[in-house]
Structures are given as structure tokens and as C-alpha cells.
Amino acid sequence: MNVFDYFFESSQHLEKDFLLGSKETISFKNLYKQSLKVAAFLNRYVGAHKNILIISPNSGFFITAYLSILKSGNVCVPLNFAIEQEQLDYILKETECETVFMAKSIRDKYMLPSEIQVIEELDLQQIIDHQAMDDYYVDINKNQVAEIIFTSGSTGLPKGVMITHENIIANTNSIISYLKLTSKDIMCVVLPFYYCYGLSLLHTHLRVGGSMVLNNSFMFLGAVISDIKDYKCTGFAGVPSHFQILLKKSNSFKTTAFPDLRYVTQAGGKLHTIFIEEFIDAFPEIDFYIMYGQTEATARLSYLEPKHIKAKTSSIGKPIPKVSFKIVDETGKKLGANKEGELLAKGKNIMLGYYKDVVETKKTIKNGWLYTGDVAIMDNEGFYYLVARKKEILKVTGKRVSPKEIEAVILSLEEVMDCTISGYDDDVFGEAILATIVAKGTFNEEQLKEKILHICSKKLAMYKIPQKICFEKAIKMSASGKKIK
């Protein structure tokens, strides 16, 4: 089944608005019709089974393009609209992309090859105005790739996670089940749709016939609080920094009444216990769901039911419906309760593999099990706890960051002999970035710090710039010659 048809199975004729808000609204019925028109255009002029990029903030433009690509039998590649040019060039070449949906507001930031067809908002509207809903058929099997979500890899190069139509359907069904979502639900969205967590909100609310309010300006906390109240939002989803900022930076959040807010969900990294306790003390009537997931699992792997949050505050809960967990040692042997090992997951939501990377796919998926790279432990009641991450990937405000990518930029400075990027706990970022520098010869610390920050600001996205820089006199090495981080 094409996931587009799954989304609109019960909602294609609904007159109610799917998007709510002061900037733009659109009904289910119109979204369905407009997406079919653009899908027909893509089928006629682009074909099928092609990789098509979307680079845009959350908007009706993004949603229409996304759904159209899925329906047309092509593969959607949603990208961060703040992506570096070098990363974009790599992905364009890797995916052999010929068509890009790009918001006009960011078009001037990027240089694209002349042979690539760029579709902006005005172009999309012209397609909708002139394209008929032609009949066509693209055979979709359950293992056909629906989207490729690029994440930071351990080498610094992005890795493309291939998500199938079946993956999305399976994960969406599970999330709807445990969150008890219905057509009455309204989600305040601050998470970007290029992120699997953000996409899961889009998927679930399309499926149940709920609605969404898009807020792309989380820095204006008053607007977020107003949106939740004014549009009677029943749900809010965020990464740790969202909750930390609302609790610590807003003067009014904890004293505001949200009579319609039924639940909140938190994923994208560990939110410290102190913030969870602060939230549930301020809002005891609002259900707080702690969740754990990976892009490689479409979005979600586990959740902690709100009724257990006080007794199991630091737990990631239990597997979502239709997903299985086990913990294994280095030999692959299954471990029992209270034994540390790598967390493995299995279910229909597990990715097909990494795009054009058979070696990494075989390392990550073995006998149907996803090797998460996270060290975990299970208690006697079957609740799981994360102990550490085996992989070096950092999570800053919920976004995956490769240390090697930042190290490469800083090491390009002639004065720098060595650079080690690591993470540390931070109240705002969740995990912030520390750069430990070994410089050549004599140097001025403040001047070198400024030079490092300057080159990082030119070469990296804002969230990848180190929050702290410290200096060491020499590289620390183990007896085997390996660098000690």
C-alpha cells in the first residue's frame, strides 16, 4: 500500500482544516486534491523511483511536496533548510537528484547545478492551478523506499537512512495506539519535518484526521504558549532543549493554564530528571510521555507510560506495540535483567538499510535486529534504561552531530595541531559541544578562540559550533598509541 493512500484512507473528503494558524490553513480535502495534482505532474515529467529533495521550513508547501512525492512513487529526501553547501553538494551527487522543491526564502543561499529543476512555492501553485488529476498507476511493494533521511555518520559524511512505505505505516500505527490519538487531537509543531520525530507528528495526525499548528519560531516563547492556548492544542512534542527553555527561560509558562493540553512527548535525547519532575509538578494533569527512538527505526522504539513516570523517571520505558527489544553482550549473547549490553530492536519499522552503503547496513542490521549502538540495562519489571552511547554521535538540541566533521574544520587551521570534539551536559542544548585544542608552538588563547569560532561559523551550521573551547599542552594517548578522549 502506498503510504499516501494509508494517510488519507478515512480523511480525503474531510472539509475540516488539517493546518490551523494565522499564516496558512488547508483542509484535508484540498490537501488531498492538491497533492494528487502535483503527484500527477511528477509522474508525467519526472517519472517514478527518482530521488527528489525538499529543502524548506515547515509549511503547506513542504507538506504538499512531501505527500506528492510519496504518491508519485518517487523517493522523498527532506533536508535541513540550514544545510551547508558542501553537504548539499554531496547529497545531490549521491542521490543523483534532478528535482528539488525549495522554499523561495532560502533559494539565494545555495548554488545548484543548472540542470536541476527547482520548484518554489509559486511554481507549485501553478502546477496545482493547471495540472489535472490524471489517472496513473505506480506499483508499490511494502519494501519500496518512500524516503531517505540523511543523518550525520561517524565518518563525517551524511548517511542516508532508507525508510519504506511499510516502515512508516507500522511506526505510525504504533504511535497512534499508545498515544491514543483521534481526530480531536491538535498538535503544536515546533519540530522540523526534515527530522524523523517531526515527520512522525505529520504522519500520525494525517492518519487520524487530527490537525496541526505550525510554529517555526520557538525562540519567541510567548508565541508558542499563545498557539497552544489559542488553537486549543491537545499535544506538544519537543526535544530536551524545548522543555528546558520553556521551564527556565519563560516567565509565564509554568503559571499558564492549558485546559486543552492532554499530553506532551519528549524524545531526541535524554531530558534530565530534574526537568521532568519540574514539568509534572507544574502540570500534574498533563500526561508526560518519555520516548526513545532512532531515524533507523523510522522514528519511535519505546515509550514510558505517564503512570510510571514518578517511579521510573529515568527510564525509556518499554518497546512500542509490535516492536521487540533485547540486550546482548559483545558476542551477541542475550543478557538477562540488570546486565549492561547493547540494545537491539526488531519490528516492521526498522529501516531497509543505509543508502548505497552495504557495509554499514550489515554492521547495523543482523538477522532482522537493529543494533542501536546504545548501551542499556533492563530492570526486573522489564523497563529499559540507557547507560551510554557506543557511537560517537552527539545530540545537540535533538540533532545528530558528527564530532569528526567539526574536528576536520578546526584542524584546517594552521595553528591547530589536534582537536577533540566531545559532548557535555547543558541545561539548554541537552548535550553541548566542547572543543579540546592542542596548538602548535606559542599562541594567544583568546585570538585562537576567535579564529576557531570564525571558521566554524563560516563552515558549519549554528548548532555545530562549539559552546566551549579549552586548550591542552599535548595529545593524550594510551599505551597502544590511540588518542584518549
Automatic annotation (TrEMBL):
Protein name stated in the entry: Long-chain-fatty-acid--CoA ligase
Taxonomy, superkingdom: Bacteria
PROSITE patterns for this protein: AMP_BINDING
Species the sequence originates in: Xanthomarina gelatinilytica
Record keywords, A-Z: Ligase
Pfam families according to UniProt: AMP-binding (PF00501), AMP-binding_C (PF13193)
InterPro entries, per the entry: AMP-bd_C (IPR025110), AMP-bd_C_sf (IPR045851), AMP-binding_CS (IPR020845), AMP-dep_synth/lig_dom (IPR000873), ANL_N_sf (IPR042099)
Alphabetized GO MF terms: CoA-ligase activity
